[in-house]
Amino acid sequence: MREHDFPRAGRGNRRNRFDDDELTFEKSYAEEIEWDETPDKPEFGDRWSTWDLSTPTERGPAPHPDWLVTELAAVDVERGVLKTGKEADVFLLHRHIPGTQRGCLLAAKRYRSHDHRMFHRDAGYLEGRRVRESRVNRAMASRSSFGKEAIAGTWAAAEFGALVRLWEIAEQLNVAPFTPYPVQILGTEVLQEFIGAPDGTAAPRLAQVRADDAELADLWQQLVLGLTVLARAGYAHGDLSPYNILVHEGRLVIIDLPQIVDVVANPQGKRFLARDVHNVASWFTARGLTGLDEQALTAELLAEAGVR
C-alpha cells in the first residue's frame, strides 16, 4: 500500500475551520443585527455644519475670517428666505455652536436644476467657458439633457470661483473687498458672507439707497474700484445693475456673480463690460452725479483686462 492510502495522524478528528455549522451560526448572527439608519441630525438645528464636507479647494481663501465658524461641533439653522432669483434662491443660515455665543450668519445660495430655473437665455454668458472633459463640453454645446444639467452645475462653481479670485486680488492690491467672503461650496450650494445686520436684516440694494452728493460720490468711487478689480481678474460681471449691488454701513458690495464673463475668452466680453458700465453709470447720473464718462471708463477697464 502507498503512503497516501493511510490518513495522517491526528487529522481525522480535526474540524475544518469553514464547517457548514459555523457558517450557519455566523449567518444567523448577522441576520439578527438591526442597523440604525436614522439620519444623524443634531439635537438643535436643521443639520450639522457642512464645513468638513467641503475639500480645502472648496473653501474660501485662507486665513479664514475670525467671525467664520469652522468648528465641527457647529450646527446650521435656517432663518428664512433672503431672496428668490431666476437661477437660485438665497436663504439666511445661522451657523453656531449650541450652548455658546460663537456663531455667524451666512447667505446660502442654492441653485435650481435646469428644469426649475427661470433663466434659460444663457448662451452668451457660456461662450468661452469650458470644463475639463471634452464630452461634457460637447453635451453643453448641443444642449442635450445631460448637457443642460451640466450647464446648471457650472453656475455655482463659476460664482464660487469668481468670489475666491476677486477676494484674493483685493487682498493683493490691499483694497477693501467689494464682494462677500466665499465660505464654501458643496454641490450646488454656495455659502457666503451675509451682508446685513446681526439680527438678520439684509443690507439694502443700491437702487433703494437715498444718498446725498458726498455719499453718492463715495459709492461711485467704490464701484469703480470694484470694476477695476474685476477687470484685473479678466472679468465683467455680465449682469450688473443697482439691483445686485448692496450698501451696508457705507460699504458697497457686488453680488450675484454666476453669469460672470471672461472678457478675453468670450467673444462678447467687450459688450458685456460696456453694458455693465452703462447700467450703473446711468443710475448714478440720474441721481445727480455729474462728470461720468462711460466710454473712458470702459476703455480703462478693457485695458486692465488686457483687451485692446
Automatic annotation (TrEMBL):
EC number: 2.7.11.1
GO MF, one example: ATP binding
Catalytic activity: L-seryl-[protein] + ATP = O-phospho-L-seryl-[protein] + ADP + H(+); L-threonyl-[protein] + ATP = O-phospho-L-threonyl-[protein] + ADP + H(+)
Gene3D superfamilies assigned: Transferase(Phosphotransferase) domain 1 (1.10.510.10)
Keywords carried by this UniProt record: ATP-binding, Kinase, Magnesium, Metal-binding, Nucleotide-binding, Serine/threonine-protein kinase, Transferase
The keyword Cell membrane belongs to this UniProt entry's keyword annotation: no
TM ranges: none
Highest taxon listed in the record's lineage: Bacteria
Family the entry assigns: Belongs to the protein kinase superfamily. RIO-type Ser/Thr kinase family.
Name of the protein in question: non-specific serine/threonine protein kinase
Organism: Catellatospora bangladeshensis
The organism's taxonomic lineage, starting at the top: Bacteria, Bacillati, Actinomycetota, Actinomycetes, Micromonosporales
